[in-house]
Specification:
Beta-Lactamase; four-stranded parallel beta sheet; hydrolase; Rossmann fold; alpha/beta; 12 strands; phosphatase activity; 2 domains; six-stranded antiparallel beta sheet
Length: 315
C-alpha cells in the first residue's frame, strides 16, 4: 500500500530514469518526512512546477531528446535554474549519508535565500533613505488594517491546513473506492467553500473524462457530465498535468457545452508522474472567486487523493 506523505512534507523533485532506483529513494525519503515527485525523463523534469519544490535530485547523465544534458537545460530554464539541486553522484552511498547531504543542501539554500532577501531589503531601504526621510516606526508597524487582514488570512490558511491534514488521514484510512471518491469531493468543497466539486476520471477508449464523484450538481446534469480530453480548460489540465484557475470577475466562462461557471479551479491528480484524473470545484451562482490559495489546497488534496485511490484499487 502506498504511504501517504505528511501534510507539511518538504517536496523534492527526483529526476532519474531508473524506476528501481527511484522507488528505493522514494521509500527512504518518504520514511523521513519528505514528499517526492519523480520525473523519468528530461521533458517531465523541465515541465514540473519548480516553485513547489525545495530541492531537485538530478541524474546528470540524463539527456534531452536534443542530445544535450539535463544540466545544460536546467541552467537555461527560467524556473528550474532557480531551484537548488544536488547530483545523484553527490548523495552518498548509505542512507545516513543521503539524508545528511539532502538536509545540508536544503538548509544552505534556505540560508542563501534569506541572505539575498535581506540584502535586497537593505538596498531598498538605503535607496529610499537617499530620496526622502523614513519613519522607521512605520516600517516596523505597518498599516493596522493591512496587518489585521494579513493575520486573518494567515489564520484562515492555518485552519484550512489543519482541515486538510484531518481529511487526508480520513481518506487514507478508507479502502472502498466509492467511499474514497465521495470523501474527496466533499473535502474539496469544504476546503474551498465551493458550490460544486467534481472528480473526473479518464475513459481511454472514448478519450473523454467522465464524472466519477460529485457534490452539489443535480442528478440530471451529473448523469451526462462528460468532457472531451481536447477541451481547452478541463481537458487541458488532464493533458498537461497543470492546474487551471478561473477567477475573472467580469464574465462567465464556458466549462463545457451549455455549462458556465463564474469561478473554478481544476487540478490534476498525479501518481508516479502520470495524471490519473482531475479534481475540480466550481462557483456558478456565488460571487466568491477562487484564489491561488484555493488552488494550492486543492493540489495538496489531489496528491492525497491519488494515493488513496491507488490504495483502494489495490485493495
Amino acid at each position: 500500500m502506498a504511504a501517504l506523505p505528511p501534510l507539511n512534507a518538504k517536496r523534492i523533485l527526483l529526476v532519474e530514469e531508473n524506476p528501481s532506483l527511484v522507488e528505493r529513494l522514494k521509500a527512504l525519503l518518504r520514511d523521513n518526512g519528505y514528499e517526492i515527485e519523480s520525473a523519468y525523463n528530461c521533458g517531465d523534469a523541465l515541465a514540473a512546477r519548480h516553485e513547489r519544490f525545495v530541492l531537485a535530485i538530478v541524474n546528470p547523465e540524463m539527456c534531452h531528446r536534443d542530445g544535450r544534458s539535463i544540466i545544460h537545460h536546467i541552467r537555461e530554464h527560467h524556473s528550474f535554474s532557480r531551484l537548488p539541486f544536488i547530483s545523484l553522484n553527490e548523495l552518498g552511498e548509505t542512507a545516513d549519508q543521503i539524508l545528511e547531504n539532502i538536509a545540508r543542501h536544503i538548509q544552505s539554500s534556505h540560508q542563501a535565500s534569506k541572505a539575498q532577501t535581506g540584502r535586497a531589503r537593505a538596498s531598498a531601504i538605503h535607496e529610499t533613505q537617499d530620496a526622502t526621510h523614513i519613519d522607521f516606526n512605520e516600517l516596523e508597524d505597518p498599516n493596522p488594517t493591512i496587518r489585521t487582514r494579513t493575520i486573518n488570512e494567515q489564520r484562515k490558511q492555518l485552519a484550512a491546513l489543519r482541515t486538510l491534514s484531518e481529511l487526508g488521514r480520513s481518506i487514507a484510512a478508507v479502502l472502498d473506492l466509492d467511499t474514497v471518491l465521495n470523501k474527496v469531493v466533499e473535502a474539496a468543497a469544504q476546503l474551498t467553500n465551493a458550490e460544486e466539486s467534481l472528480l473526473l476520471l479518464p475513459d481511454p477508449e472514448e478519450e473523454v473524462l467522465y464524472l466519477r464523484a460529485m457534490k452539489g450538481l443535480d442528478v440530471k446534469r451529473a448523469s451526462s457530465f462528460r468532457i472531451k480530453n481536447t477541451e481547452p480548460l478541463v481537458g487541458r489540465v488532464f493533458r498537461s498535468g497543470e492546474p487551471i484557475l478561473i477567477n475573472d470577475q467580469g464574465s462567465l466562462q464556458r466549462l463545457k457545452t451549455e455549462y458556465f461557471v463564474r469561478s473554478a479551479v481544476y487540478v490534476p491528480m498525479r501518481l508516479r508522474g502520470e495524471t490519473i484524473g482531475v479534481l475540480g470545484v466550481n462557483n456558478r451562482g456565488s460571487n466568491r472567486l477562487f484564489s491561488q490559495i484555493d488552488q494550492e489546497l486543492l493540489l495538496d488534496l489531489a496528491a492525497h487523493a491519488a494515493v488513496a485511490i491507488e490504495n483502494a484499487r489495490l485493495y
